[in-house]
Amino acid sequence: MYNEEQIIQSIDQRISINNDPYPYFFMDKFLPLEIAKKAEQEFNNSPNLDDAGNARYQKTKLSFNKYQEMPPTIKNIIKICYSNLFLKVLEKKFDLKNLEPDWNLHGGGMHQSFNGGFLKLHSDFIYKRKSKQRRVLNLLLYLNSNWKKEWNGSIELWDKKMNNLKFSVEPLINNALVFRTDKDSNHGFPDPITCPPNESRTSIALYYYTKEKSIFPFSLKKRQYFHAVWKARPNKVEPTFSDQTSFFKRLKNKFYYRLF
User: Fold this and answer.
1) 52-71: per-residue pLDDT in tens?
2) C-alpha to C-alpha distance for 176 and 11, rounded to whole angstroms
3) How far from the centroid of its chain's Cα atoms is residue 119's Cα?
4) What CA–CA distance (Å, rounded) separates 176 from 193?
5) Under 8 Å CB-to-CB from 2, ≥6 apart: which residues?
6) What separation in angstroms does the CA of 233 have from each of 21, 72, 73, 127, 194?
7) Paired residues of 220 in beta bridges
8) How far is CA 66 from CA 8, 69, 205, 214, in A?
């Protein structure tokens, strides 16, 4: 039997941070395999996922973020990854202080995509509205035992200027990726997946925050920091953040929003 402390100690010993294009680590065999397999089985038997996609940026995406209603093994994985002990490991490895988990799983939780689905390259929202929290880390854990490389769906990390693909890995079961998030943390799986109708790309997505301090009763941040900013690959005709946005909305997003 494995316990929480043993699992976290094993992960801690195997983390190696890569800083290109931004700080991240990838790990296969993230959890004991029987835990990941059980989570996969529970995920595939869960009927509760809701539509979270759109045809331009994240086609066929389903998600579910109600922690208390999740299957037990998935809840336990989140509990481990949001534990104080694991937060300390992430703080040490990424040189961060006072990490905070998001038990509301805003934008996170259980994610699923089907044949034809994709997630265009983007940088994530950095702030939640009316909150002092700044998002600093993403954790992605994949749960796909039968995934084949030719089906696409590999997670990609791109450089700041969107010139070069720096890292990619297939969404195979028990593969995990943790990376720093900011306005240039460009990532996604931009090509439509071609898995059979009876297969899907499944993952658990968890986000971590730090609380910003201010001597003032409010803080001003650019509006675009409150939502994903979509970006095109070189020599590809793809939707971006502003290509179908009106002039006035583009102008609006250059101004500031009162954070708290």
Assistant:
1) 766 677 877 899 999 999 99
2) 11
3) 11
4) 19
5) 32, 35
6) 15, 39, 37, 25, 20
7) 258
8) 24, 6, 13, 31
Q: Tell me: pLDDT of 223 over 70.
A: no
Q: Which residues pair with residue 157 across a beta bridge? A: 167, 187
Structure token digits, residue 44: 């595939």
DSSP 8-state code for residue 161 = T
What pTM was computed for the model? 0.89
Q: Compute the residue count for the chain.
A: 260
pLDDT in tens, 196-217: 999 999 999 999 999 877 655 5
Sheet strands (E) in the chain: 24-27, 50-51, 62-64, 100-101, 109-113, 119-123, 133-142, 155-158, 165-169, 176-180, 186-189, 201-211, 220-222, 229-230, 256-258
Q: Where are the beta strands (DSSP E) in 212-248?
A: 220-222, 229-230
pLDDT at 256: 47
> What residues are paired with 100 via a beta bridge?
209
| Residue 47 banded pLDDT, cuts 50, 70, 90 | confident
